[in-house]
Amino acid sequence: MGRIPHRPGGPWTGILLAASVLGSCLQPAPAQTPTPVTIVLTPPSPVVGGGVSLAPQPPPENLVLCSWFRSATTTDENSRILSYSPATSPPQTLGPAHTGRETAGPGCALDIAGLTLSDTGNYTVQIMNPAFLSIPVTLRVYEKLAKPTVTLNQTQVPENGTLTLMCNTSPRADTVLWLQNGSYLTPNTRLELSSENRTLTVLNFTWGDTGTYQCEVGNPVSTNRSEPSTVTLAYGPESARIDPPGPVNLTLGSRLTLMCVAVSVPAPSYSWFLNGTKLPQTWSSFTFDLTTLNLGTYKCQAHNPVTGLTASAETEVLGSPPDAPHPGAHSSLSTGAVAGIVIGSLAGAALVGVGAYFLYSRCRNKTPRENEAPVLVYENLPPTAWAGPVAQPGSPPDLSPMYQTLQPRQPDVYEELKK
């Protein structure tokens, strides 16, 4: 197997000589339009690992000889795959470009099995019947496309920023389409596509551009989509606050947790300051035991690395000894509460006074009959002589008081009747 033998007296020499004599003896036929011959591929989109048939259509009549070349011309013998002559046995003669997978069929068809991507290229068939025809054809072998992937320059885009997406797929993909939230995108003034649609650029990014992005690739034998890639809008922080709000009054030794709250996408980085000095804490909150060394003004800063925005907040932390009232403790009562306490105290005092007066009045107004106890009446009686020492002449007078005896008087009958 190899090149066609060209030795004197060989079968190919006789065939070519006969064809030449036959052509010279033929009288010119009336002028007529020859039927164009094309090469038809079956299947039209051959796949790697499959087979294909390249057949001249319509099949050549009075076929003497045909040869297939793996090139766009027939001048290079090294590119000849095989030659086919129905009048010889065997009819097929292999050439230098034969791979062991090619065979010739009826009508000078070339059958290739076990296709690979390297079989893609230009082919030419030379037909003699007895005229000479050279017909070129391009064979493309397709592969089933793998799932593509999407590379983004960022997944969190600031407002009016630029988003760039790249579809990573086989260079043999014929089509590349882009989808946002499952719908196909159409290029416009803000959506730019590269020459092969493999790169998508979104200009002046807005809320409407957020969501999921996919690229879809295809060829005549397969279609595949990438996994969704989520893109969000970066924003904030516009403000910040510290919880609990200040001023914070606690007893020394108490445990305190300060939290910096800021709305931001992506989550911000945090910095803390005490009386203007930066602290090592970098979290949104931290907990510490209150001492005289950590009293003062606390400040938190929240910074968005994408938008570049920074927001801050401050609070004051005060402390007092464990046995002392907290500063501002009395001020914790509202004005209304203090007024209520005063009014309640006055009202209670008034009620107590009224009750005491009422009880006192009842005790004075009760009569003996009401008390059901006899009223004792006392009367004075002349002093009773009593024996004592006789005053001596010249002695000072006796200054002892003269007492009269009080004794209950017995009421007479008239007084009883008056009752």
Please give a structural write-up:
With about 425 residues, this protein is mainly beta. Among the domains are: about 10-20 and about 35-140, Immunoglobulins (Immunoglobulin-like), CATH 2.60.40.10; about 150-235, Immunoglobulin-like (Sandwich); about 240-320, Immunoglobulin-like. The chain is built from four helices and 29 strands. It has helices at about 10-25, 335-365, 370, 415-419, and strands at about 40, 50-55, 65-70, 80-85, 90-95, 100-105, 110, 120-130, 130-140, 150, 155-160, 165-170, 175-180, 185, 190-195, 200, 210-220, 220-225, 230-235, 240-245, 250, 255-260, 270-275, 275-280, 285-290, 295-305, 310-320, 380, 405-410. Strands 11, 13, 14, 17, 18 and 19 form a six-stranded mixed beta sheet that branches. The longest helix is centred in the C-terminal third of the chain and has 31 residues, at about 335-365.
